[in-house]
Specification:
Elements: E1 29-33, E2 43-45, H1 48-55, H2 65-74, E3 80-84, E4 94-99, E5 107-112, E6 122-128, E7 134-140, E8 163-170, H3 180-185, E9 191-195, E10 211-213, E11 216-217, E12 221-223, E13 239-244, E14 251-258, E15 263-266, E16 279-283, E17 286-287, E18 297-300, E19 303-305, E20 308-310, E21 326-331, E22 338-345, E23 350-353, E24 366-370, H4 375-379, H5 391-396, E25 403-405, H6 415-426, E26 430-434, H7 447-450, E27 455-459, E28 462-466, E29 471-475, H8 478-491, E30 501-502, E31 508-509, H9 515-521, E32 526-532, E33 536-539, H10 554-570, H11 581-600, H12 609-612, E34 613-616, H13 624-628, E35 635-638
Parallel strand pairs: 1-3, 1-25, 25-26, 26-27, 27-32
Antiparallel strand pairs: 2-3, 4-5, 5-9, 6-7, 6-17, 7-8, 10-16, 11-12, 12-15, 13-14, 13-16, 14-15, 18-24, 19-20, 20-23, 21-22, 21-24, 22-23, 28-29, 28-31, 30-33, 32-33, 34-35
Amino acid sequence: MPEYLSPGVYVEEFEIGAKPIEGVSTSTAGFLGETERGPTVPRLVTSWLEYQRVFGSYLGSDKYLPYTVQGFFDNGGKRCYVGRVVKAGDAAATAATVKLTAGAANALTVTAIGEGAWGNRVAVKVSPGSLSGFRLSVYYWKSAPTALFDPDFDQKANPRPTAVEIYDNLSVDEASPDYYDKRVNAVSSLVRLGRLAGDTGGAPDAKAGHMGTAQSGAASTITLASTASATDDAYNGMQVWIVDKTGKGQVRTISDYVGSTRVATVSAAWTTQPDSTSVYYVSSVASLAGGGDVLAQQGTAQAGAASTITLAAGASTVNNAYNGMAVEILAGTGLGQKRTISGYVGSTRVATVSAAWTTQPDATSVYRITPSLILSDYERGDTDSPGNRKGLTGFKEIDDISLVYAPNAQGVAGLPGSLITHCENLKDRFAIIDAAQGSTVSNLSPRDTNESKYGAFYYPWLKVIDPEAGVQRLVPPGGHVAGIYARSDTERGVHKAPANEKVNGAVDLEFPITKGEQDVLNPRGVNVIRAFPGRGIRVWGARTLSSDPLWKYVNVRRLFIFLEESIDEGTQWVVFEPNDIPLWARVRQTIVQFLTGVWRTGALAGATPEEAFFVKCDRTTMTQDDIDNGRLICVIGVAPVKPAEFVIFRIAQWTAGAKG
């Protein structure tokens, strides 16, 4: 209570009436799958271009996530979290130290933002800032160059970096607005920086980017030009490149530098000793290393046939040891081909692949066998600290997610059920499940294994254009469907069934579905995607995987998720308020006001609010025992609109002049 201790006028504010409830978003998706690169902690992306900047581009015909994320944005999606899935045990690449100043202590550590061998194709360069501090350049190559080079200097070297990040005028002062942790670690899609133990800070005083003509050279040294730094150890840890004349093309790391004589000692003897004609360039480019994908086996094949490959000595001698794993030809005959191993004979080391090789491997073929992702790779555990959790466990921490999807989930044992269980446990999101590629009408009965009101099932797959390869790809439909959910929510509302909606980006279907086939599939809870002449490819079903008639339709389930989550978030102010008649009345007012607004959008059936919903919060909904134990109970009933799934026009002949 306020205190009134001296005479005067007191003006006080107080709250009365309902508090507004703001409807929650229902269109933010969470995608799980394999990407070219990037972080493994779920990351928000708001466009296809942003996805490419953070996670890379297409990976080939059997890695579906990029195609489905693009389909999401093509069909009206605005926001999605991407959870990159990797094998447990994959390692992140690092560069042990990147020199900032002369002296052993002043350096940064650089680590790839996520696990995997992709980080070995990242390089960093430190040079003086244009105004102050230092400049950090980060380069990533999708295909590794044959030798590391400085892209800022050598513009002709190939391949050019796929992605470049540049941060200028960085500081190692934690109080500075340009502190590298704020400028780089907060936004980089490629690396994370750290301080070397014992680092004392400072700006670069080494002349990174220095270029000149050598005065002389010896077996393991080079004498730099008179314009070089006079500071001892100024170039230690940097690279010296011979860019023209004698010794052109060689690169070595400087291990010691004497400023008074300008003699740089290099880490390994020159193949061709530089001389007074050699043009050199000093750079601080450092490649990350040590990143790795968990491998089952790698080596050079002994032989190959139309549908087999004989593995190298040292491969497992256990029958079927590699079944279900992917084998990729990394070099030699058959370069670039990928297949799945369907059988393996340990005594002969002969692996049978699922489809015949386009180019048969031979004894020159270098292969890599990678274990397939399994359910635990998608689920991950709670072993990581909050804010660093991955996979479905990471999605639990993100309240914004309302749709959950993993392309080709049927290809991972147990994953469809895990996605649905995730949604059932949290009760604030909905799972989209695809049929397996090649499924036929006779073998589709998804409710037999995943009966749920928190998921929907879609069939068949879509054909889309891969703009990089210029060919059609067969992809699962769920990403496009998630985009349609988002588009329908935005344009019409969550109460509108996400069906009879055009699928943007699809050029054809895996199988054409007839009305007779849909007559079989629709009662089973299979939402069919069909092609209609003159109307394009459309989603032609809106059923959940539930056998309960109350929760038959996708829009009804998602409308209730919207209502429940909005009321939950909009009534947090009620907690610990005095639990008595004034509070009950205010809660009633708040929810009635919210539901009236929902009714006016057309989401609830009924000609009046009284027909559309009721709200009770009084002595009829709670006992004295409830009140004594701190429970406020409010009972709400709503009448959701149902979709016109079967539109029937009954027509009869009419005799002129007859009375109806």
